[in-house]
Design goal:
Helix content: 25-40%
Number of helices: 4
Order of helices and strands: EEHEHEHEH
CATH class: Alpha Beta
CATH architecture: Alpha-Beta Barrel
CATH topology: TIM Barrel
Number of strands: 5
Strand order of the largest sheet: 2-1-3-4-5
Largest sheet: 5 strands, parallel
Distance between the termini: 31 Å
Radius of gyration: 14 Å
Strand content: 15-25%
Number of domains: 1
Structural class: alpha/beta
């Protein structure tokens, strides 16, 4: 997984959204690296809808990469959404969510 900073927050890690295509163009130099998908972490908010634009941006980046034929295989995984916003993430195409707090909440 490659983490993409779709929010632009300095507190978040990952490749800047505008640099993802450039990153993937350099991958053929490393034939043993097999990227399966992208991940992002949206800004923390009491309103899950606030995360939608970050999730949508990641899906659009994934679609652009897949349509560009840069990679040997499609990126199939979108890992986005946590306990507070996973429903919105799924609506935007997430097929891997990271739920902890909702499972272990006391």
């Amino acid at each position: 997984m490659i983490q993409v900073n779709t929010s632009g927050e300095r507190s978040k890690f990952g490749i800047a959204a505008g640099k993802v295509t450039e990153f993937f163009k350099g991958l053929p130099l490393y034939p043993n690296i097999n990227i399966r998908g992208l991940m992002t972490i949206a800004p923390e908010s009491a309103n899950a809808e606030d995360a939608r634009s970050c999730f949508r941006a990641l899906r659009q980046i994934r679609d652009e990469i897949n349509n560009s034929n840069i990679l040997r295989q499609e990126l199939r995984i979108l890992s986005m959404g946590m306990s507070g916003d996973f429903e919105v993430a799924i609506e935007e195409g997430s097929n891997m969510v990271r739920i902890g707090r909702a499972v272990f909440k006391r």
